[in-house]
C-alpha cells in the first residue's frame, strides 16, 4: 500500500459576540475611535468629520477633536461605516452623483432614497435616458 503525502488544513469559523459599552466623555478625533453605537461630535454637537473619514472627497473641517456620543448621524449629516444613520428615524446613508462628481454620503429618508434609486434604475434601463439624473 502506497501512502501519498498530504496536508490537512483545518479552518475554524466562529463568531465572537460582544457588547461594547460606550465610555462617557471618551475623547476622539474620528468616529472610528468610538464604540459601535457612538459617533464623534464636537462641543456643539456637530460631527467631527476630518477629510477621509467618510470618503475621499469628504469635507475638511477645522475641528479635529470631539467626544464619543451615543447618537448616530442625523438628517443631512455625513454618514459612513463608523457613524451610520439613525435607523430609528428612518434614515439611510446615501451618496448622489451629479455631473460626474461624487458628493459625501449623507443621511436621507429611506422612502426618498428608494424613490431616487428606482428612478435611477429606470433611467439605467432606458437607452434614451442620460445619466446621472
Low-confidence stretches: 1-22, 51-59
Strand count, sense and barrel status of the largest sheet are: 3 strands, antiparallel
The string of secondary-structure elements, in order, is: EEEEEEEH
- Percent strand: 15-25%
Walk me through the topology.
Elements: E1 27-28, E2 39-41, E3 66-69, E4 91-94, E5 97-98, E6 101-102, E7 106-109, H1 110-125
Fold and architecture overview:
- This protein is of the alpha+beta class.
- It has one helix at 110-125; strands at residues 27-28, 39-41, 66-69, 91-94, 97-98, 101-102, 106-109.
- The chain has one helix and seven strands.
- Strand 5 and strand 6 (101-102) form a beta hairpin.
Salient structural properties:
two-stranded antiparallel sheet; alpha+beta; 1 helix; disordered N terminus
Q: Can you give me a brief rundown of this structure?
A:
The protein is α+β, with helices and mostly antiparallel strands and 133 residues long. The protein is built from one helix and seven strands; from the N terminus they run E-E-E-E-E-E-E-H.
